[in-house]
Amino acid sequence: MVKESTIRFVDFRSFSVYFLINIISTEGMNISLISSDKCRSRSFFSSFAGLLLLMISPTLPAQTYETQFARPLGQVLNEIGTRFNIKLKYDVDTTGKVVPFADFRIRPYSPEESLTNVLSLFDFKYARQDEKTYKIKAYEYPRRTPEDGKKQLSYLNSLYKDSAEWAIRRPALKKEYRERLQIDPVLQQRVATKPIFGKIRKFDGYTVQNMAIETLPGLYVCGSVYSPTGKGKHALILCPNGHWADGRYNSDEQTRFATLARMGAVCVSYDLFGWGESELQVGMPAHRTPVAEIVQLMNGLTILDYMLTRNDIDPQRVGANGGSGGGTQVVQLTVLDDRFTAACPTVNLASHFDGGCPCESGMPGMLACDGTNNAELMAAFAPKPVCVISDGGDWTASVPELEFPYLQRIYNFYHAGNNVTNVHLAAEKHDFGVNKRAAVYDFFVSSFHLDKTKCDESKVTIEPKEAMYSFGVNAEKMPANAIRDFGTVEKYFNKKADAKIHSDIDLEKRARNFVDTLKLNDKEKENRVFNVIKTHMKAVRDWHNEHPYTSVPAGINPRNGEKLTDVHRDVIACSAKPKSVHENLMNGLRKDLTEDQTDLILDLYTIGKYQFTLKGFKAIVPDMTEKEEQYVIQQLRMAREQAVDFKTMKGEISAIFEIYKDNCEKYFNENGRNWRQMYKTYTNRLKAEKEAKKKINIQ
Ligand SMILES: [Zn+2]
Known about the structure:
The chain is of the alpha/beta class. The protein folds into 4 domains: 53 residues, no CATH class; 68 residues, 3-Layer(bab) Sandwich (Phage tail protein beta-alpha-beta fold); 327 residues, Rossmann fold; 189 residues, no CATH class. 49% of the residues lie in helices and 13% in strands. It is built from 26 helices and 14 strands. The strands form 3 sheets. It has a 9-stranded mixed beta sheet, with helices on both faces. Helix 9 runs parallel beside helix 16, helix 18 packs antiparallel against helix 19 and helix 19 packs antiparallel against helix 21. The radius of gyration is 36 Å and the shape is globular. The site of zinc ion (ZN) has 7 residues, from helix 13.
């Protein structure tokens, strides 16, 4: 059965092209198409079969210039697989995807170039799994190739050729990374209630106690505190969890925390957001959101805050250690908080992988300072001790060649090359196995002087996970105020967005009022003017909000040699906005409005400050000449027009008018008047009038 529609697209040219292709592929290039009858008949047969194939195949367009030599993606990839004898695995759906100029993209000498040429059209990529196997995947922003990592590190190195240049990059990086995580508005909403503790469980040389800390109202982070049995001040090691099977209850994890505790460090292990007992609060899907990244870091910082209030903790020895996603958190925590004194990121750190879960890379932190990576963020910890544990079986395979030499270079800026170490386990894979744990123990023995003689994993008791539940086996100890859905948590993260929406609404109302005052009676004109004003107001507001006065360094006012006030710094910050903001407003207004109407709008912007100030001048200088008045009017008109580009009435707008008022006073003084005297006379007259009024009232 051949459908009519299928036949229709097979035109004459494709017939002949297809005949030719089929004959060549069947008989080989060396056989002449017309050399013998036998040959001709075979060719004809195969061509006919091919033609039938062509006609019943709905996805195979004719291979011509007109059809862009288009072929289905799945078919093209199959051919690449066969041609280069490689196996392709698929993480993507190729159905319905068509490759234009398909065969022209194949490079006979390179399967990888061929794949790139074809896959890049669909934002797909390949990941080489071994010599003969490639996985076809969708583009992943946090995952790049070691080659990319090498290029980025080399670029970063070029930004700081010495310690002086690094000293400029480092604080800028830490600041912008933090801002891009948007963690501070969330940290500010935290409550400071007392942690909830479970019973202390005693083991050989250490104890374990469950703990739940309320972070945001009703949101808890649950964890377990592993402590040495000895008295005195101990080192603290924060142990954020990775995505291991069974999370922090995993036996590799328990073994590490307990062993470190036996050796003299208090270890705090705590749930990932949406995992463990957090799942009871927000559900597991909440984990794969950018909110998870912020909450997990907030959890770490809140636990740190609390632990440092305790008498059994030595604030000089504060470490962080975690594997995989937990290692990502280690890097992030050290960027966010200077109280850490040693860090041990395990099987995570690479310049070409940011961590594939939204809880690691859901926020755009890596875009800080035109692009950074985990190696550079870890370098910002220099010269404090860091040990990077890597293996040959995951993305950290590149550490000995790429990330470690990069880190050493930065540490050498501080003459602290010995403070950065790399334990690379080339034969191992992505886990937190015994050799990786041994490297962790060694690192904290050397950096925190833990007791190596107590390092014996056989003494550790692996507890059932139920024993580690802070809220009890049936969540019966969950506090009454505990949040039970992710939506309630999310609202703490959207405050800024909410505020902007409300601000937009208010701003548009104001712009609409301005236009209504004009009574234009022309809908189209009203809308044009409204849009011009609204756009201008938003530009002024956004610039003001994004350029706080603190962005201008405290300094001296060149006019009077006095310290710049905060308002002046604000005016300077807001004066830096593009000229077009002002020009677009004025041109837009003048296009549709008369001079008087434009003035009215400017007056509405500045709440009548122009008239008010002019009136003041006239009161102080009652015998003002026409020439003087013209000067004052000219100055105040300039003040008004300039002031519309500033946001705060009491602060910035008044400060702009002050500048022009000063000009007027100076003008009077330079033209035979004494401003001070005139002002004094004016205030005396006011006083006298007041007194007179009082007297009248008394009588
Ligand atoms: Zn995650």
